[in-house]
Amino acid sequence: MFRRESTNINFLLAIFYGLFLGSLIPGFALSNVMLILLGIGSIYFCVKNKKIKYDKNYIPLLLYFLWAVLSLFWTIDEHQTVKGISKLIGFCLIPLFISQYPTIKKENIFIIFRTLSLCLLIYFGVSIIKAYKLYSLDHNIDHFFYHDLSLIFENNAIYISVFTSFALLGSINLAKKNIYDYIIILFLLIYLILLSSKNIIFTTFLIQLLIIIFFNKTRKQKLFIIISLLVTAIFFITLIFLDSPLKNRYLEENKSNYKQIFKDNSFKDYYFGGTTLRLLEFRIGIEMFSKENIGIKGLGLSSAQKLLDDYYNHYEVPRYKTYNFHNQYMQTCIELGIIGGILLFIMLIYPLVKSIKRHNLFLFSFVIIMILLFFTESFLNRQKGILFFTFAYSILFKSQKGILNVDKKIKNEV
């Protein structure tokens, strides 16, 4: 499956990067071990090169981290802000570590996606086995969908969907695919649909269409991608029409009265779906921003939860206490103010512009996933999200400058 460059340090490094991303699936213990190994490796390259480097492309991450640290001086909850900074330390350390490593060559960047894909499919297989065992006991088909399918290691289906979408888009757009890649793509497609995240499924389709439209691909590649999308769409629509949990989720959303969310002052007996809950949290965020003197500084990193819980009590939905805003843009603006929101915007737009200029479709895919995901998840308020975001951001910028797998007639450019 992998090419013969097994003795090449660049090849081994690509496998390590893929395993690092895969280590986020089991949880913090393994990912922390991988982070330590990443740090040890960076020390080795520092000694070997006799200098410490820092890639200027990582400056947006550093600025965001430094502003979060500064919020300690005005936070309304010092204890939570300290905890938040300890989780956000990856924004500082990972770019610094990756800066010391050699550039990943374009023929090896694909190994990262293949390794991550294998980790995901192993997890998928184990999850399906567990789901079948539970189904054999109570005949509840829900075990094969959404959060029930990602219960092992107490994962959230949204986060696993993000990893799957990232790996899937990378696998689909490999320049030279073999039979193993086609098998991986098929199972990743099935996994993504069963995880049932509406936002991530839509995002994956949208990104792939954008790649077809804006990146110059060969006729054979375009045909394969279009067929893959059609097969996925047919499978997805079939599940929608069958009596499945996926269909039930869509029916529940269609019954929701969205206008009511912005008019009522009590939701004691109201049933919230995923979208309506996020709309209520968005409404609370707007009210909080206007009433709580958020301004340019914000309340302090990770310090908004107690105040948010007060709003949940006010609207008579205490069952959602401890839930965050489920919107990274709102979360950042409340906690880090207008300046934090601007830094988050720069952190997303800068790599997007770079990816287009360099024809780096993998970086492009990653950034679009994050931009759309941040509307429905506070991804950077969870350690798993922080590690994935900073690591993927860093290695995709670190990959060889220029094209990764578009038409070879296009010249490499910085």
From TrEMBL:
<dbReference type="InterPro" id="IPR007016">
    <property type="entry name" value="O-antigen_ligase-rel_domated"/>
</dbReference>
<feature type="transmembrane region" description="Helical">
    <location>
        <begin position="223"/>
        <end position="242"/>
    </location>
</feature>
<dbReference type="Pfam" id="PF04932">
    <property type="entry name" value="Wzy_C"/>
</dbReference>
<dbReference type="GO" id="GO:0016020">
    <property type="term" value="C:membrane"/>
</dbReference>
<feature type="transmembrane region" description="Helical">
    <location>
        <begin position="329"/>
        <end position="349"/>
    </location>
</feature>
<keyword id="KW-0472">Membrane</keyword>
<feature type="transmembrane region" description="Helical">
    <location>
        <begin position="179"/>
        <end position="194"/>
    </location>
</feature>
<feature type="transmembrane region" description="Helical">
    <location>
        <begin position="82"/>
        <end position="99"/>
    </location>
</feature>
<keyword id="KW-0436">Ligase</keyword>
<feature type="transmembrane region" description="Helical">
    <location>
        <begin position="152"/>
        <end position="172"/>
    </location>
</feature>
<feature type="transmembrane region" description="Helical">
    <location>
        <begin position="200"/>
        <end position="216"/>
    </location>
</feature>
<feature type="transmembrane region" description="Helical">
    <location>
        <begin position="361"/>
        <end position="380"/>
    </location>
</feature>
<feature type="transmembrane region" description="Helical">
    <location>
        <begin position="57"/>
        <end position="76"/>
    </location>
</feature>
<keyword id="KW-0812">Transmembrane</keyword>
<feature type="transmembrane region" description="Helical">
    <location>
        <begin position="111"/>
        <end position="132"/>
    </location>
</feature>
<protein>
    <submittedName>
        <fullName>O-antigen ligase domain-containing protein</fullName>
    </submittedName>
</protein>
<feature type="transmembrane region" description="Helical">
    <location>
        <begin position="12"/>
        <end position="45"/>
    </location>
</feature>
<feature type="domain" description="O-antigen ligase-related">
    <location>
        <begin position="184"/>
        <end position="345"/>
    </location>
</feature>
<dbReference type="GO" id="GO:0016874">
    <property type="term" value="F:ligase activity"/>
</dbReference>
<dbReference type="InterPro" id="IPR051533">
    <property type="entry name" value="WaaL-like"/>
</dbReference>
<keyword id="KW-1133">Transmembrane helix</keyword>
